[in-house]
Design brief:
Elements (H helix, E strand, L loop, with lengths): L1 H40 L9 H5 L4 H5 L5 H8 L23 H8 L38 E2 L16 E8 L4 H16 L6 E9 L8 H14 L6 E5 L3 E3 L3 H4 L12 E2 L3 E4 L4 E4 L8 E5 H6 L13 H11 L15 E3 L11 H5 L2 H4 L12 E8 L4 E7 L2
Parallel strand pairs: 2-3, 2-4, 3-12, 7-10
Antiparallel strand pairs: 1-3, 4-9, 5-10, 6-9, 7-8, 11-12
Length: 398
């Protein structure tokens, strides 16, 4: 009996020693990895490094750990938020240096009803986005193509030429038809009742031939190329998922529901309420997907999105690396207690198995892969100016 007890305690002690060694090994590996990551990410802020030299210091997980927020840039890298892209000519633009901007806009508005926005979430509502016959109050003042302009009193400080014109770019596939219905109804209602209105248009871009897997990057690049080619005076583009809608009126959301561009790219959807799971979700600080507002110059500067990501995942992370490499940081509103956006129910997409291999060499490709070569990779099938939106059909080449 005594011998068995000695063997038991000896075995237990040996097991605990092994666990202690394993724990210390894992802890030391983690600390070393964090230290190496800081060492590797630091050169990105240096103007002396080329994209290729920077890329050699990357592995896949480093890319996922890059915090491109402006708070991180100014805190850890000592950089200032550049005024290079500030539009000082448009005195009523949110990206200008104008003081008391919102007060000037409100003083220039024609008298309007003080109606509040409430989200409409009933997908059984009778509305076909592709049929112009159905009328809703929020569609009455729309011009074809989903274009809306606020009514401003003549002779006031702000006029239509010096307020923001925002184009919403919405990637879409037919499987999200129910989402598109609610998106259009809610967005037009919200934007027209927003307390500091701006001119806007909604551009929906659909991949019509699904022989190829869904390619979000090519759809976004196609839409922006259309904006450029049509010479639309877009101060700001908002890349917006079709399954996200504002959760409350703009008066209550404040800055966290303000789509207008800032001096740097402006990310709004870090915190959302998922209707399907009935839970709110706070995404990590590295996320740039969902809703991203940025100036057209910014998009061109980074050569748009990569065209190589088929299926779900990592195209937003690739875009984030492009922005960081071009010294563009992500501005975000302060987190509110309640989420500013609701996620409409939808089926989850299957993640692509090749996304990490493309992401790992993102900076080696970005000059040749993006907006600059999109014409060779897609075919524009049609452009329709419907009542609630401009509809761009795109065939994605294999």
């Amino acid at each position: 009996m005594g011998r068995n007890r000695i063997i038991f305690w000896f075995s237990l002690g040996l097991t605990l020693v092994n666990i202690w060694f394993i724990f210390n090994y894992i802890l030391s590996s983690f600390n070393q990895d964090v230290f190496q990551t800081k060492q590797q990410c630091q050169p990105i802020s240096s103007t002396k490094k080329s994209s290729r030299e920077i890329q050699l210091n990357f592995n896949i997980m480093d890319i996922y750990r890059i915090d491109v927020s402006c708070k991180y840039i100014t805190r850890d890298l000592g950089s200032k938020i550049s005024d290079k892209f500030v539009d000082k000519n448009k005195k009523c633009s949110a990206s200008s240096l104008t003081k008391d901007l919102n007060k000037k806009i409100q003083n220039s508005l024609s008298k309007r009803e003080n109606n509040l926005y409430y989200p409409i979430l009933n997908k059984s509502i009778l509305f076909d986005p592709f049929n112009n016959d159905k009328d809703f109050d929020m569609f009455n003042d729309l011009k074809l193509g989903g274009l809306w302009k606020p009514k401003l009193d003549p002779g006031k400080e702000c006029n239509l030429d010096n307020i923001d014109h925002v184009v919403f770019v919405v990637p879409y596939s037919h499987s999200r038809y129910e989402n598109l219905k609610l998106f259009l109804i809610n967005m037009h209602s919200y934007l027209q009742k927003y307390q500091y209105p701006f001119s806007y248009k909604i551009l929906v871009v659909e991949q019509v031939d699904m022989e190829s897997k869904f390619n979000k990057g090519r759809l976004i690049n196609s839409a922006v190329k259309h904006i450029i080619d049509s010479r639309e005076n877009a101060d700001c583009i908002v890349i917006h998922d079709v399954d996200l809608v504002p959760s409350n009126d703009g008066n209550k959301l404040g800055e966290s529901g303000d789509y207008r561009c800032r001096k740097m790219p402006w990310h709004l959807s870090r915190k959302v309420f998922n209707i399907k799971t009935n839970q709110e979700r706070l995404y990590n600080q590295f996320l740039t997907g969902g809703i991203l507002s940025l100036r057209l110059e910014h998009f061109i500067k980074v050569n748009g999105f990569s065209n190589e990501y088929f299926g779900w995942g990592a195209e937003d992370d690739d875009f984030q690396v492009r922005m960081f490499n071009q010294k563009l940081c992500i501005m975000r509103p302060e987190l509110r207690e309640q989420p500013s956006f609701k996620m409409l129910p939808h089926e989850s997409s299957k993640a692509s198995n090749t996304r990490f291999s493309y992401l790992s060499n993102a900076l080696n490709r970005y000059e040749q892969d993006g907006l600059s070569n999109i014409d060779n990779l897609v075919e524009i099938k049609s452009i329709d100016h419907l009542k609630a939106f401009t509809y761009l059909k795109v065939k994605v080449k294999k």
